[in-house]
Amino acid sequence: MAGKIRFGIFGCSRGSGLITCIYGSGAEIVALCDYRPSAKEYVYSNYPSVKDVKFFDNFDEFIQEDMDAVLIANYFCEHAEYAVRALRAGKNVLSETLSNITLAEGVMLCRAVEETGKTYALLENYPYFKGNLELEKIYKEGTLGKVVYAEGSYVHPMDAAEQNSLAPGLRHWRNWTPRSYYLTHALCPVMQMTDTLPVRVTAMASFAPELSKGTALRSGDAAVIVMCQTDNDAVLRVTGWANYAPHGNEYRLYCTKGGAEVNRYNGNIHISYKQHSRPEGEERCDIEYTPEWPVKELGELADKEGHDGGDFWVIYDFVKALEEGRKPYWDVYRATRAASVAILAWRSVLNGGQPMDIPDFRREEDRRKYEFDNISPYPDENYRVNIPCSSRPYAPTEEDLAALKERFGQEADLPMK
User: Fold this and answer.
1) Neighbour tally for 366: CB within 10 Å
2) Nearest 5°: phi and psi at 245?
3) In DSSP terms, which residues pair with 222 in a beta bridge?
C-alpha cells in the first residue's frame, strides 16, 4: 500500500489512548467518531496532534471518509457489527477487543473479510509485552522442545469505587461480562508464543459474591479457570478477567526439553532445562536475564506507550502488514478462535464443566453450525438476556447500586449505546 496508512478512530475513549501509537507507527489519522457530545472536546483538548482532524458523531457518515483503516474501539460487546460495516465500506479493520461476543457474529465477520478482501486484525496487546515477545522468540528457537503445557493469567482485582468508575451504568458492558469473556489477555500470548490453536475447552468458575458487593456487577464470580486442548496436543490453562489477589499477569511454557516463564515481579525471563537436554554449549540448567525489545529504536517509542509497550507494537505490526500486503498474525480466523474459546468456556461453566469443541471458521461446515447462534449475556433495553453472566444466581441489591446512582444520577440507567 503506497503512502501513509490513513486511520479513522471509532470510539474516542480507549481510541484516544492509541493516537500516539498510530503516529509513531508511521501512519496518520484522518477522522474521529464518537456519539458522546463530550468526546470531541476531550480529544481536541488532550491530543493537539488531532485538533485539525474531522470529528463525526455518526458512524455512517464517518465510514464514508477517505481512509485505509478503521480502529474499532467502541464498547467491548459491540465490535463485530461495526467491523463488518467498516469492511463492507472498503476499509481495513483493527478491532480493539474481543472480535465477537456471539458465535453467529464470528461467522459473519469471517464471511465479511473473505467477501471484501480487506485486512482484519485483533488489537490484542498482551502478546507484545517485552517478556512475552522474548518467550515467543525462545520457543521458536527450538531449544525448549515441543510445548506440552502452558499457563497464562490476567488478574485485575478492583474495589467497588474503581469498578463503578469504569462501568458507570446499569447496562454498561463491564457489569454483564462473564469472567471467561475477557480472556484474550491471558490466552492470546500463549497462543502466539507456541503458534497453537485451541480445539477443545472446559472451564469452571470460582464463585465469590462478596467481591461484587457495592457495584452493579451482575456476576458473583471471582474467576473462570479455562483449560484448552490445542491442535498439537498441548494443554493451555488460562484465566479470564480474574478478580482475586494479587494483581498481575503470569505466562509460563512447559516443554519436552525445558521450560520458560516471565517473572511477574521483575519482568525477567527464567529458563530451565533438564540436565540431559541442555542446548549444546550451555553449561547452566537455570538461566535468568532481563529481556530487550527486538528493535531498540522502536522499543524506545514503545516504552512511552500504554500496556507495557504492547499498544505500540500491535499497532505497528498492523500498519506494517498493510504496507507490506501481508496478513497480520491476529487475523480474523485466530481472532474468532480466541473469541470462541471465551464464549464456549462460559457455556462449559454453565454445563458443569462439560467439554466443548471449538469451531474452525475457516470451514463452511462449522460456519453453518453456528451462523444463527446469537446467545449473548448482554441485556436488551428491558434487561433481558438469554444466558446468565454469573455461574450461580446473583444480582446487585439496591444498597449495592446506591453509590453508582448517587455518582451518576439518571445517567446510570442509560442504555449501552
Assistant:
1) 19
2) -105, 155
3) none
Which residues, 6+ apart, have CB-to-CB distance to 405 below 8 Å?
412
- Nine-digit cell string for 266: 521483575
Which DSSP string do the residues of 239-306 spell out, in sequence order? EEEE-SSS-EEEEEEEESSEEEEE-TTT--EEEEE-GGGPPTT---SEEEE----SSHHHHHHHTTST
Which DSSP category does 210 fall into?
Answer: G
Mean per-residue pLDDT for 26-33?
Answer: 97
Element (H, E) at 322: helix 310-324
Give the single-character DSSP code of 122: E
Q: What is the mean pLDDT of the chain?
A: 94
Phi, psi of 303, rounded to the nearest 5 degrees: -60, -20
Whether the CB-CB separation of 150 and 227 falls below 8 Å is answered with no
Pairing mode, if any, of strands 356-357 and 198-207? antiparallel
Determine the pLDDT at residue 417: 39
The helix (H) or strand (E) run that includes residue 182 is none
Cα dist. 215→360, 383, 397 in Å?
37, 17, 9
Window from 92-96, 208-212, 380-384 with minimum mean pLDDT: 380-384
Please give the pLDDT value at position 373: 98
Cell of 338: 480466541
Name the maximum alpha-carbon separation found in the chain: 68
CA distance 69 to 319: 9
For 54-73, the three-class secondary structure string (H helix, E strand, C coil) is EEECCHHHHCCCCCCEEEEC
